[in-house]
Structure prediction request, 1044 residues.
Amino acid sequence: MGFLKDKVTRRDFITYAGVIVAFVIVQLLVNTHVIPYSLRGQLVPVTCYIVMAISLNLVVGVAGDLSLGHAGFMSVGSFTGIVTAMSLASAIPSPVVRLVLAMIVGAVFAALAGFLIGLPVLRLRGDYLAIVSLAFGEIIKDLVNCLIVGADSHGLHVIFDMAGTKTINDLNLAEGGVAIIKGAQGASGTTTISTFAAGFVLIMIALVIVLNLVRSRTGRAIMAVRDNKIAAESVGLSTTKYRMIAFVVSAAIAGAAGALYGNNFSQMSASQFDFNTSILVLVFVVLGGLGNMRGSIIAAALLTILPEALRQFSDYRMLVYAIVLILVMLFTNNPQLKALIQRLNPRFRKEAAADGE
Amino acid sequence: MSINMNPAMNRRSLIAGVAGLGAAGILAGCSNGGSSDGGSAASSDGAAFKLGTIGPLTGDTATYGVSVTNGVEMGAEDFSTKDFPLTVKKEDSQGKPETAVNAYGTLRDWGMQALVGPTLTGTSVSVAEKCQSDRVFMIAPVATAADVTADKDCVFRGCFTDPNQGKNAAKWLAKNKPDAKIAIIYQSDDAYSQGICTAFTEEAKADKLNLVKPDLAFKTDTATDFKVQLGQAQDAGADLVFCPLYYTPASVILKQASDMGYKFTMMGCDGMDGLLSIKGFDTSLAEGVLMTTAFSADDPANAEFVKAYKDKYGDTPDQFAATAYDCVHAVAEACKKAGLSLDTAAEDACDQLVKAFTEITVDGLTGSLTWTSDGEVSKEAKVFEIQGGKYVAV
Amino acid sequence: MNAFIQFLFNGISLGSVYAIIALGYTMVYGIAKMLNFAHGDVIMVGAYISFCATSYLGMPGWASVVLSVIVCTVLGVVIEGLAYRPLRDAGPLAVLITAIGVSYFLQNAAQLIWGATPKNFTSLVTFPVPGFLAQYKVSAVSIVTVIACLIIMVGLMWFTANTKMGKAMRACSEDKAAAQLMGVNVNKTISMTFAIGSGLAAIAGVLLCSYSPVLKPTTGAMPGIKAFTAAVFGGIGSIPGAFVGGILLGIIEAMAKAYISSNLANSIVFAVLIVVLLIKPAGLLGKYVPEKV
Prediction:
C-alpha cells in the first residue's frame, strides 16, 4: 500500500516538474526571441485552455458527469474578471495585483454559478445531464449578452438590457467613467494585462488543487460515486454532495481561467463562449485521457497549437484539423488499431503489461 | 452515458495520438502541398511590399471574410507597379478574436509591412490593439465599431462607423419618407447590427420618426425564423422595416415575409450589399429594398472591376470586396506619397503611412476618399434602391 | 386572438422542422446509443445536393429530393462504417468526439466544394394554401413539413414495430450482446439505422431550406443542436417523443419571441427544457430506466 502511494505521489510530482520545466524552457525561448511571433501570441490562450482542460477533467473524468456547458463558467469568470480589472484600473495601478484580483473574483463568481447550476443539474445523469449543462451554457451566453456595465467615480453601474433597447448612454456615467461591457459588442477596449507567467502559476495552482483533491478522501469518494452510485450510497456517501464538490471546484478553476483569458484580449463577446468552445475543451479532455491531468495538459497544448501549425495548408486547414481529430480518435480507441501499434512497438507491449496489473 | 476511466490506456493513447497527428500531417501535406501561398503580384526577384489581410475564411461568417480578402488580393494585383510591387498573404480568423490575433502573429512572422484587415468588428478591435502596441499600420476595411480606431493613431478605417450609418439612414428617412411607420429587426448578439440599431433609434427619435415597433431582436441561434417578428411588425402596422443586418439574414426575412404575404419596404445598411448576388436568390423579392452603402456593382464606372472580379472569383463583388480594394488602393497611394522603399521596416512604414494617409485623396470604387488623423474615412453616403434587380442610386 | 393563433401556427411550422430533424437524431440515438453531432451537417449536405440538382442539372424538384436522399443515405453509411464502427467497443465519449470531428469535416469539405458564399434555396414546395390556413399566414412548406413529419413518424413506428429489421433494431437498442447471440447482425442493423437516419436528414434538409432559405456550410449546425434539444425534450430514443418535442420546442420559441422577449427566446426554450427534465428526468415520453445494482 505504501509503495503504491509513493508511485502515485511520484507521478504527480513528475507532472509538476514537467510543467515547470516546460515553462522555463518556453520562457527562455521567448526571452531569446527564438519563438516566432505567432506562437508568442498563443502562450496565454494555451495556458487558459490547459487550465480549462484540467478543470473539465475533474468533472468529466474524475466525477464522471458529462458537462457540455463548461464554457459558460469560463464566460462568467471572464466577464467578472474584466469588470474587476477595468474598474480598479485607477485605484490599483499594478497590473499584476489587478490580474490576481480579477482571477479571484472570476473564480468566486464562477463557483457561485457552478453551485446554483449544480443544484438542478446534478439531479440528473448521463445524456440528460449533458443536455441540461448545454442549456445552462447557452443561457449564460444569452444573459451576458444583455449586460451593460460601466464604472466611474461613483462605482459600478450595471444595466440588464432584456429588451435590447438600452445603450451605454443609459448608464449615465460621470465624467471620466468607462463603459466596460457594451451588450452585444461585449467587452471591448479592455486593457490587456494577462501574462504567460500568470498562466503558468494558474496551471500550477489548478494542478495542485485538482491532484490533491483526487488523492484525498473526498476524491476517493467522488470516484466511488462515479464508479458505482448505488454502492457508494450504500456505504453512506452522499452522491450529490461529492459530485457538487467536484462541480463547484471545477467551475471556480474555469472561472479563473476565464478571467485570465478575458484580460488577454481587448475584445471579448459572450458569443465566443458558446457550445463549440465547451466541445473544444471536451476534446482536450477525452484525447488526453479521462482522469489523466498530464494528458489533458499535453492534449490542450497540442490541439491549440495544431490549427495554427496547419496554416500552411491555407484553405484546407480546418479540413485537415478535422481529419486529424478523427484519425487520432480512431487510432487511440480502436482495439484492432491499438493492437497493431502495440505489435509494431514492443515498448507499448511492455507498458501495457505493466499497466494491466 | 457511463464513463469508464481506464488509466492503463491513457499513456499509450497519448503517444499513439501524437503519432497520429504526425501521420495525418504528412498525409495531408502530400495531397495539398503547394497550396499555401495566398496569391501575390510579386516581381520576379521576389521583393515586394508585404500586405497582410485577415478575415474569417472558414465558419459561419466566412462569406464576408472571403469577399474582403479577395478584394485585398485584387487590389494588390492592380495597384502593384513595377517599382513598387505589392504582395498579399491572407490568413483565417474564423471570426474569433483569439484566432485573429494568431493570424496577425503569423503575418508578422511572414514580414508583413502593413495590414488591410481584419474583417469583422470583434476581431478588428483585438488586432488593432496589437497593431497599436507593435506600431504596425492597419486599415480595417469594413469594421464599423467606434472602438476599432478609438485612441489608436496607427489604425484607420475604410468604411463608415456604426453611429454614422445609423444616423445617415435615419436622416435620409426623415427627409424622404417622414410618414413611414417604422419597425426595426436587428441581431442583438452582433456588434454591427446592435451598434447601428442604437444610433438609428436615437436619431429617429430626434427626428420624430414614427417608430411603431423598434425592438424586434433575434440572435444567431434564432436566425432561421423571423415569422414571429414579421407578424409583430405587421400587427403594429409597419410599412418600413429597418434591418441593420448582413445580407444573409436579410434574404431570409424577405423570403419569409413573402411567404406570409406581408409587404413592406426594407431598409438596410452597407452589410446588406451583396443581397442580389446570393446564388439562387429570387431578386424580385428584393424589389424596392433601400440601403445606405457606398458601392454599386451596377454602376458603369465600376464595370471594369466587377468584370475582373467575376472572372477571377466567379462571384459578383459586394461592398466588402470593393471597400477592401479601395483600402489597398489607399495604402498604395500613401506608400507612394511617403516615398517608402520596399524594405522599410513595419514600424517605420507605420509612422510614414500614418502621416501620408491624411494627405491623400483616393478616387476609388466607393467614392472619393480622404482620411482624418483619427483614422476615420470621409466619403459620400449614398442610398441605393433595388429596381429591376439592379442597384439604383436614389 | 388572431395574432395568437398566427404565432401558434408559426411555432408549429418551426417546430415541425425541428421535429423532422429530431426524428433522425432519436432514431440513431435509440439504436446506436450515440449522439451523432454530425447529423445537422448531413442535413446541410442533403440541402446542397438538392440545390445543385435543381439549379445546375435542371432536375425537377422531386427528383432532386430523391437524389439527395440517396446521396445522404450512402454518406451516412460511409460515415458510420469509417468513423463510428471502429469505435463500437470504445467509450461513448470517444464516439462523441469522433462525431464532432466528422461534423467539422463535413462543414469544411462543403465550404471547399460549394464556397462560403451562401446560396439561396428556392422552395421546392409551392401550392395555394387553403383559405382558413392562409388567413393565419401558414405557408405551403409548413403544411408539407407537418404532414411529412407525421408520415415519417408513423412509418418509423410501424417499421420498428413490425418488420424483421425493425425488430432487430429494437433488439440492438435493448442489448447489443444479447441481440448478437440471437443471430442479429449488429453491424448491419446499425448501418441500416444510419442509412434511414441520414435519408431522413436529406428530406429534413430540403424542408429546412425551403422554410428558411439560406444555405451555407454551417446551415445545419444550429438546427441540429435545437433538434437534439427537442429529441431530449420529448425523451431521446422515443419516436413520438421526437415529434412532440420538436413541435413543443417550436411553439415555446415562437411564444417566447412574441410575448416575452425576442432577445431571450433561446434562453427561455432552454429554461423550459431544464424544468421539464427536472420533473421528468427522461423527457416527456421517454422511458425512465432505474439504475440496477
